[in-house]
Design a protein that fits this description.
The chain contains three helices and two strands. With 76 residues, it is an alpha+beta fold. Strands 1-2 form a two-stranded antiparallel sheet.
């Protein structure tokens, strides 16, 4: 299927992909893209080991911290 045909029939192609059909889109007679259904990964539903541990990060961005960094690096 060409890119132009795919553009005009996108919703049909999405439905076909969801029921298990293989959909390949070509450009100039050469395969370019294969549509596949999206599958969410059940293992990635949390923020990782640092989730909730960075509550004080805003303290690093105070005016006092900026002034200290300025003094350390010679900026007024």
């Amino acid at each position: 299927m060409s890119v132009l045909e795919a553009k005009n029939q996108l919703s049909k192609l999405v439905k076909a992909t969801l029921v298990g059909e293989e959909v390949i889109i070509a450009s100039n007679g050469e395969a370019q893209v294969r549509l596949v259904p999206y599958a969410s990964s059940p293992g990635l539903r949390h923020w990782g080991i640092w989730g909730g541990r960075c509550a004080g990060v805003d303290q690093a961005f105070t005016e006092e911290a900026d002034a200290e960094v300025g003094r350390l690096f010679g900026k007024p």
